[in-house]
Amino acid sequence: MTETASIVFVVDDDPSVRRAIKRLVESVGLHVELFGSAAEFMDSSRPNVVSCLVLDIRLPGISGLHFQRELIKAKNEIPTIFITAHGDIPMTVRAMKAGAVEFLTKPFRDQDLLDAIQVALERDRARRQRYADVALLRERLDSLTPREREVLPLVVSGLLNKQVAAEIGTTEGTIKVHRSQLMRKMGADSLPELVRIAEKVGISGSKQ
């Protein structure tokens, strides 16, 4: 995804703060969407693109920290940058422990916010790429035959072909064919690579 496909969501109940952040972020070529409350943000229809959330601590209704917890419960992993005029150390610690990218106290330097946004967008981009990679590997896993699925955990556990053959009651030659096929289908050029792929899709080196 390109930077132009990225969106910075800003949730702050102060219209002047929202407008100032919008001007700042748009000055570096990023798209910005503004919201006055957490509820307004949640009720909106948001595109599924690389994004981050600039979130005020003090909001009408639900607080920023409470909203962060709700996002986590909902498995919404959007990277979050907190901004506040009323921050303290315990508040900062709670936010950072819960996964916040940054906690900025108003008035903050423009560059500090821009830097935090770039870190947050990169984090979201990397997360989305990991998910896409795993989805591709799961598609490859689904292409295996039942017998290849049976052979896979035994192979990645380090068993020799003859040991795998004895384990499932077939010939060593048959296992060689299955092993070659599953490595080709999974896109692995070596056993160590196959082991790494298997780990990514939740298959350990044991019988499944």
- Uncertain stretches of 5 or more adjacent residues: none
CATH top level class name of the largest domain: Alpha Beta
> Architecture of the largest domain, CATH level 2?
3-Layer(aba) Sandwich
CATH topology of the largest domain: Rossmann fold
Mean pLDDT: 91
How many strand elements? 5
Strand order of the largest sheet: 2-1-3-4-5
Helix content: 40-55%
Based on Cα principal axes, name the global outline: elongated
Number of helices: 9
CATH homology superfamily name of the largest domain: Response regulator
Number of domains: 2
Please explain how this structure is put together.
- The protein is an alpha/beta fold and 208 residues long.
- It is built from 9 helices and 5 strands.
- Strands 2-1-3-4-5 form a 5-stranded parallel β-sheet, sandwiched between helices.
- α6 (146-156) packs across α8 and α6 crosses α9 (191-200).
- The two termini are 36 Å apart.
Q: Which features characterize this protein?
A:
alpha/beta; five-stranded parallel beta sheet; 55% helix; 208 residues; single chain; elongated; Arc Repressor Mutant, subunit A; 5 strands; 9 helices; Rossmann fold
Task: Summarize the helices and strands and which ones pair or pack.
Layout (H helix, E strand, L loop, with lengths): L6 E5 L3 H12 L4 E5 L2 H6 L7 E6 L7 H10 L6 E5 L4 H9 L4 E4 L4 H33 L3 H11 L4 H8 L3 H15 L4 H10 L8
Parallel strand pairs: 1-2, 1-3, 3-4, 4-5
Helix pairs in contact: 6-8, 6-9, 7-8
